[in-house]
C-alpha cells in the first residue's frame, strides 16, 4: 500500500512537471506567434513602401529622360545658330538633369536598403516559424496529443541536438523517448480518471446522505428555521427515497 502511495506521489510530481512544461511552451508558442504576426505586418508595410519608392524612381527616370531630350534639342538649336541667347538655358537644364540623376541615385540607394531590411525580416520570420513548429512538436510530445512517427521523432531529436553528431533513424533514443512519454501519459491519465471517479462517488454519497431518512428531517427543520418552508410533516423512508431519486436523477 505504501509502495502504491509512493508511486502515486511520483506520478503526481511528474504530472506537475509535464503541466508546467506545457504551460511554458504554450506561452512561448503564443509569444512567437505574436512576434511572427508583427513581423508580417512590418513586411507588408515595407512592401508597400518599396512599391511607392519604385513608383517615385520611375517618375524621376521619366522626367530625366524628358530633360535629356530637351537638353539635346537645345544643344542642336544652339549649334545651328537658331538660338539667339547664349548657352545659359542649356547649362540650367544640364544642372536640373544632374539634380534629378542625384535624386534617382538616392532613391535607388533607399530602395536597396529597404530590400535588405525586408530580406532580414523574411529570414527572421522564417526562423520564428521554425521555432514555432519545433515548440508545437515539443508541446504535443508533452501533452501526448501528437502522433510522432519514428522519422519525425528522429528529426525532432536532431533539432534538439544541433551541435551533436548525426542521429541515425534507428537510434534507440527516439523510441525510448516515445515509450517513456507514452508510459507517463498513460499513468497520468489513469490517475486523473481514478481521481475523477473518486470525486464523483464522493459527491454521490454526499447527496444520498443529505436526502436519507435520518438527515432529511434535519434539513427540512433548518429550512423552516430560515423561513424557506412554513411547515412539513416528518417524511418516512418511502418519501425520502422518492425525493432522493427525483433529485439525483437530474
Q: How is this structure best described in words?
A:
Residues 102-124 are annotated as: Disordered. With 250 residues, this protein is an all-alpha fold. The chain has two domains: 2-146, Helix Hairpins (Orthogonal Bundle); 216-247, no CATH class. Helix content is 82%, strand content 0%. The protein is built from six helices and no strands. The chain has helices spanning 2-79, 88-143, 150-160, 172-210, 216-225, 237-248. The longest helix has 78 residues, at 2-79. The chain is elongated.
Short description, anyone?
The protein has 250 residues and is an all-alpha fold. The protein has helices at 2-79, 88-143, 150-160, 172-210, 216-225, 237-248. Residues 102-124 are annotated as: Disordered.
Gross geometry: elongated
Alpha-beta classification? mainly alpha
Number of domains: 2
Fraction of helical residues:
over 70%
Question: What order do the helices and strands follow?
Answer: HHHHHH
Provide the fold topology.
Layout: H1 2-79, H2 88-143, H3 150-160, H4 172-210, H5 216-225, H6 237-248
Helix pairs in contact: 1-2, 1-4, 3-4
Characteristic terms for this protein:
single chain, 250 residues, mainly alpha, Helix Hairpins, 2 domains, 82% helix
Amino acid at each position: 500500500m505504501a509502495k502504491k502511495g509512493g508511486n502515486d506521489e511520483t506520478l503526481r510530481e511528474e504530472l506537475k512537471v509535464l503541466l508546467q512544461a506545457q504551460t511554458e511552451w504554450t506561452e512561448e508558442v503564443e509569444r512567437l506567434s505574436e512576434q511572427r504576426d508583427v513581423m508580417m505586418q512590418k513586411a507588408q508595410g515595407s512592401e508597400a513602401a518599396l512599391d511607392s519608392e519604385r513608383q517615385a524612381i520611375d517618375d524621376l527616370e521619366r522626367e530625366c529622360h524628358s530633360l535629356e531630350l530637351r537638353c539635346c534639342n537645345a544643344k542642336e538649336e544652339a549649334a545651328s545658330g537658331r538660338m539667339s541667347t547664349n548657352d545659359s538655358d542649356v547649362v540650367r537644364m544640364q544642372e536640373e538633369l544632374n539634380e534629378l540623376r542625384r535624386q534617382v541615385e538616392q532613391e535607388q540607394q533607399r530602395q536597396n536598403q529597404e530590400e535588405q531590411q525586408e530580406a532580414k525580416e523574411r529570414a527572421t520570420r522564417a526562423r520564428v516559424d521554425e521555432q514555432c513548429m519545433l515548440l508545437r512538436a515539443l508541446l504535443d510530445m508533452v501533452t501526448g496529443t501528437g502522433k510522432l512517427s519514428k522519422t519525425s521523432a528522429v528529426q525532432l531529436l536532431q533539432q534538439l541536438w544541433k551541435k551533436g553528431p548525426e542521429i541515425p533513424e534507428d537510434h534507440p533514443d527516439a523510441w525510448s523517448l516515445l515509450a517513456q512519454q507514452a508510459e507517463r501519459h498513460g499513468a497520468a491519465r489513469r490517475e486523473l480518471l481514478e481521481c475523477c471517479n473518486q470525486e464523483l462517488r464522493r459527491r454521490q454519497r454526499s447527496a444520498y446522505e443529505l436526502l436519507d431518512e435520518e438527515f432529511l428531517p434535519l434539513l427540512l427543520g433548518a429550512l423552516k428555521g430560515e423561513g424557506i418552508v412554513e411547515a412539513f410533516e416528518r417524511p418516512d423512508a418511502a418519501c425520502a427515497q422518492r425525493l432522493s431519486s427525483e433529485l439525483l436523477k437530474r
